[in-house]
Design goal:
globular; 24 strands; 656 residues; 24 helices
């Protein structure tokens, strides 16, 4: 076999002539010369016991205390403010409501202080599952009505690069059209021999790295086939955009784009590692998150470049009796979460070792890790449970060798692990080998390179390797958590922000970016420069001006009630005063609502109000007793027999 150079990322790939290159011994890794171009200075990541060491914030506890004190202050303020407003109206009716709310708040605060109380009658429900108040961002890029083309995808990517989100209707369109194509794909994507194939490793929500790939090796076409090897989301702030681009490419050129499933294309994993939060921040919709999860479960499990390369996210089957036919027979669409399926199987069978073969295969393909005998002597034939990850297996090079011979291939390509150079190589003996490729540069701030592997399709199963460094300007990136807080802050101070914008624009419809920045700093009381984030937060015209109303209309308060997955919630946008009140008092609203909503369905029935009032009456003197019938009839304005979220919020804002 000929040995191939690692290509500098700035070189035009088709013009490069592969040749033998003399070099010093330290330049060789796995019999390959490493020549790579740096986009930014490279700093080694700190490694301890195989894991990146990250600094923790020393003031986390202080911030937690401040947040707790802030909530306490809000509790005091809302009680006083509510009492004054209710008194100004009909005293006889509103005084009863005030006692009702005050007693509920007092009991909730008492329960917060007494963490040892485990009485089932006083245990709070998870109100966030049934009642949610949060800022929501509207607007964004909308796909044109015509069929997707490469030009349309480039336009969409340009909008993403400017910080614009994709409108939910356009994202749903991509999900629907993408799933229709994925459903027809087999579990194993077979790529004909002689095809040039670029393998992209973990992207993990980094739109910057995905676009680097296309800049360096070109976009998919009939001469440039891609395999994206899983883990498109989580830990990065642009998972939605990465998924949108990949689905759009699959729709536009399905024969030249292959999408493998990774362990993070999993509805439960996404809740733990950030993708769920990202979707909720950008769209506020559990339904949309679940819809993305449905598409994920239709992703193929692996790909094969015929007679050369087996491409899979993590590893090979731990059961050596397994074959390609067993993988092909897996009903992958039924496995929305490998974690959930594994637990369900364990509970049903009484033992994790009793899991069905199909589930075990999927878990091994998506979760496993290789063992290098150089690090663990004697591990050549290792095949053991992967206790580090809690799923999949750990496998030695001899197992890789036997699997590849069974597949009539010479090279295994997998991803799943961050490697410092962006790629790593292992000789598995008997003319077989394994590569790990990772395509997220500076992953979690670790300073690693990213890479892609390019197989020319010449039958040699030897890749060219392109590497790069991160060139992301962190100062111009809000991040998911910061973006969520910023959306909430704008919604809370929207009325004040409008006043400052109108004043600085002299009453005109448009305002300069500089004056917008000044209004943001004053209205939000944040002494920061918002200019680097203007394209992310506001629709900026090419003349560096912002339409005030379009900017404000982009931010609304969303109130969602119930665990129903077919609703994105009620938008409270017409009344900025009510929106601000709901945002300011949401902790109390959530607490009181959750106190009464015993079954967590997001509606307050008469029985629930009666039960809650009975608990409160135990704390009140005889002349302060609450009449649950009167309380319920007063709040149930429409007489429907249950209290909706709008009715519930009304008692907090009747004067606004």
């Amino acid at each position: 076999k000929s040995m191939r150079r690692v290509l500098p990322c700035g070189a035009p790939l088709r013009a490069m002539v592969r040749r033998w290159t003399s070099c010093s011994s330290q330049d060789w890794v796995g019999a390959r010369v490493v020549h790579s171009h740096s986009r930014a200075s490279f700093s080694r990541r700190n490694i301890h016991a195989g894991k990146m060491v990250r600094n923790t914030r020393a003031n986390d506890s202080d911030e937690s205390d401040q947040a707790s004190n802030a909530i306490d202050d809000v509790c005091d303020d809302v009680q006083a403010d509510m009492w004054r407003k209710l008194y100004e109206r009909d005293y006889s009716e509103k005084a009863r409501i005030a006692r009702f709310l005050t007693s509920a708040i007092d009991l909730i605060e008492e329960r917060k202080a007494n963490r040892n109380d485990r009485s089932p009658d006083l245990r709070p429900n998870d109100a966030s599952e049934s009642f949610m108040i949060a800022g929501k961002e509207h607007g964004g890029y909308e796909l044109p009505a015509q069929a997707l083309t490469v030009e349309v995808i480039h336009e969409m990517v340009a909008n993403f690069s400017d910080g614009q989100r994709l409108r939910s209707a356009s994202l749903k369109r991509l999900l629907d059209e993408g799933q229709a194509i994925l459903v027809a794909c087999p579990n194993i994507s077979l790529i004909p021999a002689g095809t040039k194939v670029t393998v992209v490793g973990d992207i993990h929500g980094s739109l910057e790295d995905l676009l680097n790939v296309f800049e360096l090796v070109g976009w998919p076409d009939e001469e440039n086939t891609f395999v994206f090897n899983g883990d498109f989301v989580d830990r990065g702030e642009s998972g939605v955009e990465v998924v949108a681009v990949l689905l759009a490419l699959k729709i536009c050129c399905p024969g030249f784009v292959h999408l493998n499933r990774g362990n993070h294309e999993d509805s439960n994993i996404g809740r733990a590692y950030g993708f769920f939060e990202e979707v909720m921040v950008k769209y506020g919709s559990r339904q949309l998150y679940d819809r993305i999860g449905q598409v994920f479960c239709h992703l193929p499990l692996c790909a094969v470049l015929e007679n050369e390369v087996f491409i899979v996210h993590a590893g090979i089957p731990s059961d050596e009796a397994a074959t390609i036919y067993h993988i092909g027979a897996v009903a992958r669409s039924n496995i929305t979460s490998t974690v959930a399926a594994k637990w369900a199987s364990s509970r049903a069978a009484g033992s994790a070792t009793s899991r069905p073969r199909s589930l075990g295969l999927v878990e091994d393909l998506l979760w496993s890790d290789p063992v290098n005998p150089a690090d663990e002597p004697g591990s050549e034939n290792m095949s053991e449970r992967n206790m580090i990850r809690g799923a999949g297996c750990r496998y030695g090079p001899n197992l890789v060798q036997r699997w590849l011979k069974k597949m009539n291939c010479y090279t295994l390509v997998r991803s799943h692990e961050c490697v410092e150079a962006g790629w790593s190589y292992m000789d598995c003996g008997a003319n077989t080998q394994m590569y790990t490729v990772f395509s997220n540069a500076n992953y979690q701030g670790g300073g690693n390179r990213a890479a892609v592997l390019i197989f020319p399709g010449d039958g040699l199963a030897e890749p060219d390797i392109v590497t790069w460094h991160s060139n992301v300007d962190a100062r111009a990136s809000l991040g998911t958590s910061n973006r969520k807080q910023m959306v909430d802050l704008i919604c809370r101070h929207k009325r004040r922000l409008r006043e400052h914008l109108i004043r600085l624009s002299d009453g005109h419809d448009w305002i300069s970016v500089e004056d917008w920045n000044s209004a943001m700093r004053t209205a939000l009381a944040l002494d920061v420069d918002f200019t680097p984030f203007c394209k992310t937060l506001a629709p900026v015209h090419e003349d560096r001006v912002i339409h005030i109303q379009n900017f404000l209309d982009r931010y609304v308060v969303q109130v969602r009630m119930g665990r129903s997955e077919d609703s994105e919630g009620t938008l409270v946008s017409a009344d900025e005063g009510l929106s601000a009140l709901l945002m300011d008092k949401r902790e109390i609203l959530l607490g009181v609502f959750g106190f009464f909503d015993n079954n967590g369905d997001g509606l307050l029935s008469k029985d629930e109000v009666v039960a809650g009032c009975s608990l409160l009456n135990e704390r009140l003197s005889p002349d302060e007793q609450l009449d649950p019938e009167q309380i319920f009839s007063f709040i149930d304005v429409d007489g429907g027999g249950s209290i909706s979220v709008a009715e519930f919020c009304r008692i907090w804002a009747s004067e606004i």
